[in-house]
Amino acid sequence: MDLLVLVLGMALVTYLPRMLPLVLLQNVELPSFVRQFMKYIPYAALGALIFPGILSSTGNEHIESAIVGCGLSVILAWFEMNLIFVVLGGVVGATLVHGMLYGWL
User: Fold this and answer.
1) Counting beta carbons within 10 angstroms of the beta carbon of residue 85, is it exposed (0 to 12), middle (13 to 18) or buried (19 or more)?
2) What pLDDT sits at residue 105?
3) Which residues of 21-52 are buried (b: 16+ CB within 10 A; e: fewer)?
4) What is the CA radius of gyration of the chain?
5) Is the pLDDT of residue 86 over 80?
6) For residues 99 and 105, is the Cβ–Cβ distance under 8 A?
């Protein structure tokens, strides 16, 4: 019973902050600069979630290969490549640089 109360409480705490703005602000017209600003939030949040993982992906001692892989992924994304190619390009780039710097390639 305690577990059920706990799960229901967590569901309520998770659902309310997402539902309330939709209900309370559905008729509010935001200024155009706020709407423009809000369009960039998903990209900024995604970058904030991904970037620390990129830097720690090769370990703290081998950050150079992670930076090269990230740079290669950014370049591929800039040219609007398919997401699979962007990810694979970053992985292959980081692996090749890691191999060249640390002697197993």
Assistant:
1) middle
2) 61
3) eeeeeeeeeeeeeeeeeeeeeeeeeeeeeeee
4) 21
5) yes
6) yes
